[in-house]
Amino acid sequence: MEDFYTIQGEGYYQGHAAYFIRLGGCDVGCVWCDVKESWDANAHPKVSVHEMARRAKASGSNIAVVTGGEPVMYDLRELTAALKEQGLKTNIETSGAYPLTGTWDWVCLSPKKFKAPDPSIFDKADELKVIVYNKSDFAWAEEHAALVRPSCQLFLQPEWSKEKEVLPLIIDYVKANPKWQVSLQVHKYMNIP
Ligand code: SF4
Question: Is 68 near ligand 1, meaning CB less than 6 Å away?
Answer without folding.
Answer: yes
